[in-house]
UniProtKB/TrEMBL annotation:
The keyword Iron does not apply. Residues 2-39 form the 4-oxalocrotonate tautomerase-like domain. InterPro entries: 4-OT-like_dom, Tautomerase/MIF_sf. It comes from Sphaerotilus natans subsp. natans DSM 6575. It comes from the Bacteria. Keywords: Isomerase. The keyword Nucleus does not apply. This is 4-oxalocrotonate tautomerase.
Amino acid sequence: MIEKVTQALHEAVGAPKETIRVWIQEVPSTNWGIAGQTAKDLGR
């Protein structure tokens, strides 16, 4: 995924690959929601 995101940014904006940083951060399903319910409560 990191390689593909890097390549996509490189192609889209022309940034040198050496200057692109990709950060992956997982968010617990209790920390985000949809339509007023947590993702956990919605089974996601």
